[in-house]
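Render this sequence as a predicted structure.
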Amino acid sequence: KQGDVSCNSCHNLSMGGDDDGAAMKMSGRNIKRSAPSVWNVAYMSTYFWDARAASLEEQATEHLLDPNIMAMQNATFVASRLKGIKGYVTIFANTFKDKKISLKNISKALASFQRSLIVANSRADQYIAGNKAALNKKEERGYHLFQKQGCLSCHFGTNFAGPAPGPGLKMGEPFFELYPTIRGSQYEEKYDMVADMGNFHVTLDPERKLFWRVPSLRNIADTAPYFHNNAVNDLHEAVRVMNRVQFNYPITEDQVDDIVAFLKTLTGVYPAIELPRLPDSSGISLVQ
């Protein structure tokens, strides 16, 4: 609303596509969850940590109107921001069938751009595709431990976040994990795990307490701090926490280190993004 926050403020494309923990610390905003990475969001079937948005368009609209994020009053206010810049009037007229600058079309444009944000060809991808030289021995041990310890039960598929939209899971259908699964560990209080009940706040269904959309592990080394509340800064600690509260299997520090070594191989090749030449807005300030 004030023109002081952009999408990139919380989803920095120069880095991991997330907020580095900044969103929850923004002055004057009551943001209670971390901003997940927007890289590879095209492969997700639902959006937000609680899976309340069924499409990228829906999540874009909610971000624009959310009083704690963009804080635009309504659809008319959103559209008026761009209608005041003549170049955007022409662009929208040439792009959309109804030729209108509207909240619906703005959300479509934002969603289309986000679907282009693909980071691929990680060393893990190369290894899984058959190039066994892509990982060293430590990383390979980590990959096998990743499977053995149960991580793959939720973090599989194209995005290491469960099934991508397709025959097995349609757009708008969530893939959840119960977190924490095993209650009462030392981490539950330390990292404030159960103050936020996840999907329950959307559905009010008691069976959905502590249900969370499974997050992607792609580029995980670039997206600390971890978990919905930014509770853990270190990837080694995140592995310890997940092992304890999801499975409680015995694990050594060497094994944690091997899993982390594998997780770091999930970082892909970031594409170059050129800054676009925006329509002329000389003399027009979006800062209110």
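Summary. The CA atoms of residues 172 and 178 lie 19 Å apart. Strands lie at 176-178, 211-213.
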